[in-house]
Amino acid sequence: MAVREILTVPHPVLKQVSTPVDGVTDELRALMDDMLETMYAAPGIGLAAVQIGVPQRVIVMDLAREGEPPAPQFFVNPEILWSSEELIACEEGCLSIPEIYDEVERPAKVRIRYLNRDGETIEEECDELYAVCIQHEMDHLEGIVFIDHLSRLKRDRAVSKVKKLVRAA
Length: 169
Ligand code: K1U
Ligand code: ZN
Hints:
By secondary structure, the protein is of the alpha+beta class. About 30% of the residues lie in helices and about 25% in strands. It has 3 helices and 7 strands, in the order H-E-E-E-E-E-E-E-H-H. Strands 1-2-3-6-7 form a 5-stranded antiparallel sheet. It has a two-stranded antiparallel ribbon with strand order 4-5. Zinc ion binds near residues 95, 96, 136 and 140.
């Protein structure tokens, strides 16, 4: 397992639409293990493969709270089957947009289908932080980052701040 570099905005790879994966192989599991280690090291609660420069439709997540045992989740070729009309506004962050946080409104509940780490098809309904995080990560698969949901002014300011931060690092 290895901690990989996380790309930051405005890296052009973050704008790519990720391609579907052709089944869950040992090679893909090794990628997902690297993603999980990278996410834990950051630290974060989710990560899409494109954020480490691999534009494939793969996501890892761990929503365990402090003091709870780790609860890693793996999503391969995830799809949203249904979204609620009810919305939820949540403050979001992104490992590709360090130190920027802002509120985004999204459907409060979604029903999703994906392959897990064992290649099994799973269908489930997500709400609360799970719904917010999976939609945020699935946006990454379409080349969308959370600041794309904000005004142009906020988006431009955020990118400038991240560029400065990365230059200073
Ligand atoms: O970059 C990412 O996609 C991961 C992102 C996920 C996310 C966070 C909040 C709302 C929606 C999606 C993060 O993990 S940002 C860091 C973060 O939220 C966090 C970091 C340490 C402890 C707890 C949370
Ligand atoms: Zn993100």
